[in-house]
Amino acid sequence: MMMGSIASALAEAWESGQPVAPLSAEAALTSLDAAENVAGAVLEKLALAPCGIRVTEAGLVGAMLPGRIMAQGHPLPLAVLPHGRAAPALLVVLAEAIAESDTGLPALAQLHPALDLSASRWRDGPANMFEAAADLAGLGQVVIGKGKAPSWPKSCALGAERAHRVDVAALFATAVRVAREAGGLPLGAVLVLVFDSTAQALAAPGPVTARWTGLGAVSAELR
Predict the structure, then answer these.
(1) How far apart are CA 125 and CA 128, in angstroms?
(2) Strands 69-71 and 98-99
(3) pLDDT, tens digit, for every residue of 48-66?
(4) Predicted model pTM
(5) What separation, in Å, do the N-terminal and C-terminal C-alpha atoms of the chain show?
(6) Domains, the chain, with CATH or none
(7) Is the four-CA dihedral 122, 63, 70, 87 of positive or negative sign?
(8) DSSP 28-93
């Protein structure tokens, strides 16, 4: 299967929910560049305009889509998040544009506590990081809480876990660098930072909650 065919299959899966069968050894994606080219082609085929960038601690980078951001308080069918995983996240709204030629960090308008609920269009889940990257970095839904004045929290937790420290500034700097390398982002765009080192599989219906020190909690009810 050529890269164009992989992109077509993934785009169809995004629209229909019909998952993509595992790739053969001959068709396997073997580089991050190839995977990102497939992801770009998927966006073109779907005619979707990103509203920002989503980055994860694990090293995945993908487009953030406005239709995949939702306020907490609305139930979600577990079936729309195949092979999903939950992770604490932050959604940052830019108060100024990120230009390709900039060197500093941009000013921020708001910071939202968030819950990242990933998904996979691959029938058996992504076989490797390249397949995950091609599938828009496993984008599912990003559930957000009330925005607050930007101030980096020092720790977060998922569910009843003990809170653990996170380096928000480092992941934010990575997101800004990625945005610059991609040509920049306009004022009002978002950066979604996903802290997936302790992500949990979405195995059964029920509530899922991410907690942030100083920002509060954000929850989703999976049915």
Answers:
(1) 9
(2) unpaired
(3) 999 999 999 999 999 999 9
(4) 0.96
(5) 35
(6) 50-222 (3.90.850.10)
(7) positive
(8) ---SHHHHHHHHHHHHHHHTPPP-EEEEETTS-EEEE-GGGEEETTS-B-GGGSTT-EEEEEEEEE
